[in-house]
Design a protein that fits this description.
heterotrimer, A alpha+beta, B alpha/beta, C mainly alpha, A: alpha+beta, 3 domains, 5-stranded mixed β-sheet, 4-stranded antiparallel β-sheet, 12 helices, 24% strand, disordered C terminus, B: alpha/beta, Rossmann fold, Alpha-Beta Plaits, 2 domains, 6-stranded mixed β-sheet
Chain lengths: 548, 294, 222
Amino acid sequence: MIKSSRYILVALGILVASIVIPSLYWTIFEKVPRSVNAFYSCITDDFVIVDGNSKKDPSGREYATEEYEKVLPLMFFRQLMADGTMPDSLKGVLLETPSISRASSFYRYTPKKLDSPVPTLWPMFESQSGKVNLAMPEDYFRIEKRMEFIVARTNRINEEKSTLFTDALTAEGFSFPAGIIAGIPTTRKSCDEGYFVTDSNGALFHIKMVKGEPYVVRIETPEDLDIVYIEAVDLRSREFYCYLFTKNQGIFVVMDEVYDLQRLPVDGLALEPVHPRRVRVGRVSVDVATLPVDQTDRRVLRPSDRQQGVQLVRDADAAHDPEKTALRIPDPPADHEHLLPGVWGSVKIADAVLLPGGNFRHKGLGPDTGISDGGVGGHQAYARRGAPCEGPEHRMTLLGGLENPAEGFVGGGRRGGGSQTKGELGVKHVVEECIEGLGHGPAELEIGLHLGLLAHPVPAVEGEGLEKDERDKECGKEEEDSLPDPHFGPEAERMLHRRPSGPTLVSRTGRGLKPPAVSSAGMRSLFRFGPCPDDVAYRRIQLGRKVG
Amino acid sequence: MYAIECKNLTHYYGRKLVYENLSFNVEEGKILGLLGKNGTGKSTTINILNGFLQPYSGECLIYGENTQTLTPETKRRIGFLIEGHIQYSFMNIHQIEKFYSGYYPGWNSAPYWELMSKLKVTPKQKISTMSCGQRSQVALGLILAQDPDLLILDDFSMGLDPGYRRLFIDYMREYAKAEHKTVFVTSHIIQDMERLIDDVMIMDYNKILAQQPIEQFMNTFRQFNITLESPGQDVDLDGIAVNIEKVKDKIEFYTYSNEEEVKRYLSSKNVSFTSFEEKKMSLEDAFIGLTRKY
Amino acid sequence: MFKSTIYKEWIKIRLVAWSALGLGLIALANIFLHVRHDILFVDAANYWYTFIFRGYTFFGILKFLPFVSGLAIAIAQYFPETVNKRIKLTFHLPVSENGVLISMHAFGAMILVAILAIVLGLFTAGSAIFFPGNIIKASLLTMMPWFLGGIATYFLVALVLLEPMWIYRGLYTVIAAGFVTVFFTGAVIGAFEPVLLPLALATLLLSCVVLFSGYRFRKGEM
């Protein structure tokens, strides 16, 4: 007894410490969290990112407040009207103030809403009283074994009304007791739409009181819809009644009058991190994350300084199968090493893959775009790390590829900075930007692009300003000294093993890149995009510009 | 049969040693008085005896049971008077009698009420409002009503005036002897002890100086006063005396030896004296004589 | 023997116990007189609204009653035992030391629980006049942590008072303060519901910690 009381005391001490110490710690050390909001501007067709006090576009350019307001006219229309700078129309649509204010709605959902205790007594308003203002009713209802109205003044149940409504509910197939009851319990709303109620089987009902009579509608919902939270809204535009939050199936709105459920395209609401595994390729360690191809917009790879690779597989089961996710990296030819992991196979993907920032969004890549045939595609680009550069090209995402013919494509990359995701951005676009970007400002820049199979075989750009690699001199490598590789055509082979001038590997040792003198104009012709033939084609292109 | 047996008690207060390997016994039916200066470990011993202190090492047995784990049956046979006559003083004399009587099947309230009748208190008067002497009477009455076989009285005389003390001692002795009770008592007031006890145990820092029947002690422990012939003479009496006090040419010393042995010793040490007398001591004198040196 | 123990304990705490009950009754009278008045003036439907949707609690006055009662009863019971180490008298009685301590403790706890139960019962009865079951249930859920906190306070104060060494008393007080505060952290109506059961269990476990202090006392800790 005494022994246990001693242990209980110790347990108490630990419990108290575990409450008090963290609380104290956070009181002292808590930092104001960074709050980032993203808006989409229809004027610039791009995002506007508000990070604390700074307002930027995705490339990092700061907006002044006035500019910022101009760029989001629908949000700041009152200010722009006052300034006289409100446009008449946007993208061909005439703008009228009343319609703007009617269409705008703000909605905020916090986790607290899900966990807070919920009232069980609600006021049922008269929806059509004929009066301008809504009147606070004299009774409250609850839906337990039946629907009961309790008159507040007497604290007694109004049996007549209760029976009336209970019968109406039963007639619609309501199964007591109610689960969620959601409505707007104040008189400060434009009109009353009653309550949205789930019954004990999860079915959804709309309950109102119209001229004293019950109005009960059973709303059609998919079989397995698991509703966890409902919030009714009072929209001026009267587009929909409420937001419906489900466990796994997303967020819906219940459309006005027709009771359609429309799913909101806000997937990726729960962005799960992928946990990469480390794979060694030559001198480089790559963090490879394996994920099913249909989850790419819901997963996040935390940005890091490492080389990162993403391996796409067909489905979730394959993701956990070690055999299917094993990476086969062919050995480099003798005296050569992998620059970046880059082994190419065939691919039938029409478009390329661009991985912006730390958030992988695969555009145009899916089971129906040929990935099921296996094969590898991708392109590889790298830029000098840390090179100061104006223009977007220095922020291009690196992509690399590893072969996994059995299951899919691995594309990888390392985030070099921001990204330029603008809708469907293909490599072509990226490269074009690179080329354009070369015209901007002084920069020490070298971009090497390994294009796999996304380009038709084109004549190798030989000797066009490709200086001999200094390192080659050191190592004494010969251009002609290359072993045929079954994966590559001879020209590709040559290109692969030919070292460009200056070290091209963006390695962790941070060796600098020395750009060759290459005519940028000539490069354009190299790019072709389209479906590939079965034989392997490979090109390595280098772009660069000398400093100064 | 020993009522109390203590073997090799050792205790420290922090780093400070109270005593080491203290052993003593109390025979049934005897009254033992524990004398000692402040801080010599009397309270420690009392606390150990009552199970309120775990000794560093060693054990005490009361009626054969370890005092740290006394059974209720044994506790029933022990009456305990706490130093200062501590009692639940928020009760009055009726309540407190009712409270204690519930625990002791053999409770005999007659002696209690006899004593209470001598007290000049109102029926509802709380004990906390009584004087020291009155409280001691209450405590005494409670113990008598409990009728224990062993009484442990810790400093029963504290705060009492002579009348009460005399009353207490007389009662106690008569009661103990009549009923063949064992009593273990401590006190600062040694004259009282003299009237009460059979055996004496004198404690000093870290050890027992004497443990024997009081008669025997008083008969063997003596004080001699001598006047030296030559005042400046260096006299070594350590061999025979327990305690010595020297003022100019007068020496008072205390010893267990008798007159003959003393004189023999003195002559062997070539100590010449002009006067020699034995002083009759009370227990208090003896106590001081025994403990003064330290 | 148990009867004697109860007899002594009751003598010690009877004044405090009756006062606590009286205080509770006064508080309840206060609550319902105000509820009746406000319902009359604000109209019942609006009054209910402030409770259901605005989180207005009409019983706030009861918040610290359990705490004060638990504290007072514990002090009334155990402080007289610690003065001059009087608990030695109890430990000397011909009963098991742990047993008698548990009896004392259980009695005090029982009286406290009885007082709190009476207050809660009268509250429920009174509320039933004005409010439906939903509101009463929400109110009780909100008040339950306060009442549990009062009981926990009783157990912990006994622990502190009986402990012989001051430094341990200080440590226990700090821990007790930290724990009891949890029961009284302000929260939305009914917010404590998920954690009530664990808190109740923890409080129940605390009922025996006073034995540890008793044990340390008998060891002779200075």
